[in-house]
Design the sequence.
């Protein structure tokens, strides 16, 4: 475990900040009342809000580590560029530091289109959720977040797969809000830290997984881009029955040794 006594990120040793970003969790979001009149935020807005939380609300002037997964991974690169002297180390997990394009852009655009083209969406002023749109969104999210090896193992028959799909769909239809989801998938629209990666000063431990649908390793993008970051190392976790596709970032067992190495390296560099 990471956040436990004796863990790599022991709360008794580190002041740990886990923010709910704009549009997510308990932070302000369209479903709070403004619906589609909510301001259209992007990743730069999120990082700016995170920085103000840390520097103005918490009165901190330096961070030991900036670590993020998936969207937080992309935020980590933006942090390193916007505030290069603010942290000792960066650990982005499960992303690519480039414009959202190709298949990664397609599945996000498909979800947004499914929502805005559903008559029940009513330009965001619906009283009842646009269920047809959310069914499509749930299906796409299931594939985007899935891992082929573990899905074949856990759903070895047609009936197993059908039951799993219905279970996932029931959960998503009970919890998703169309406006919130639309804003979330649209917030990456102008993300592209690629041009400024060379300005990152902190040591970087960048970890992706080989069965990640969203960031497919066969593109070879990470191996090329890591060379443009001064103190960066890229690690690709091999696909297995235990990895979880894009969600492998949630299993610290796969990358805790890399985190330990980063903390040790950055501690030496700070002396």
Sequence:
């Amino acid at each position: 475990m990471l956040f436990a006594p004796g863990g790599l990120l022991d709360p008794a040793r580190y002041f740990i900040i886990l923010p709910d970003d704009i549009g997510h969790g308990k932070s302000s979001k369209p479903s709070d009342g403004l619906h589609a009149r909510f301001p259209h935020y992007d990743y730069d807005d999120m990082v700016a809000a995170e920085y103000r939380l840390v520097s103005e609300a918490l009165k901190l002037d330096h961070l030991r580590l900036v670590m993020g997964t998936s969207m937080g991974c992309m935020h980590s690169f933006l942090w390193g560029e916007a505030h290069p002297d603010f942290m000792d180390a960066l650990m982005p997990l499960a992303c690519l530091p480039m414009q959202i394009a190709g298949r990664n852009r397609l599945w996000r655009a498909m979800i947004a289109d499914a929502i805005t083209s559903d008559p029940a969406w009513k330009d965001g002023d619906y009283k009842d959720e646009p269920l047809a749109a959310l069914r499509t969104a749930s299906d796409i999210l299931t594939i985007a977040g899935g891992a082929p090896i573990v899905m074949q193992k856990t759903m070895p028959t047609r009936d197993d797969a059908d039951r799993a799909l219905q279970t996932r769909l029931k959960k998503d239809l009970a919890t998703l809000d169309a406006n919130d989801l639309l804003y979330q998938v649209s917030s990456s629209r102008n993300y592209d830290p690629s041009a400024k990666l060379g300005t990152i000063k902190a040591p970087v431990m960048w970890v992706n997984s080989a069965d990640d649908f969203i960031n497919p390793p066969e593109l070879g993008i990470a191996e090329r881009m890591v060379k443009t970051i001064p103190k960066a190392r890229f690690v690709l976790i091999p696909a297995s029955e235990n990895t979880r596709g894009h969600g492998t970032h949630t299993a610290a067992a796969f990358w805790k040794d890399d985190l330990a190495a980063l903390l040790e390296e950055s501690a030496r560099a700070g002396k």
About this structure: The longest strand covers residues 204-209. The mean pLDDT is 97.
